[in-house]
Amino acid sequence: MRIATIKKNGQEMAAIKTEKGYVSINRINGTQDVQFPTDLRILLQSNQFDILKIWYDGDGKDILHELPVEKEYTFAPLYRYPNRIWGIGLNYAAHASDLSEKVPDKYAGSFIKSSTTVIGPGDTIEIPKLSERTTAEAELGVVFGKTCKDVAKENWLDAVAGFTTIIDMTAEDILKLNPRYLTLCKNFDTFFVFGPELVTPDEIDDVMSLNVATVINGEDHATNVVSNMTFPPDDLVSFHSQVMTMQPGDVISTGTPGAVPIADGDVVTCRIDGFELLTNPVRDLKV
Question: Where does the pLDDT of residue 93 fall: very low under 50, low under 70, confident under 90, or very high at 90 and above?
Answer without folding.
Answer: confident
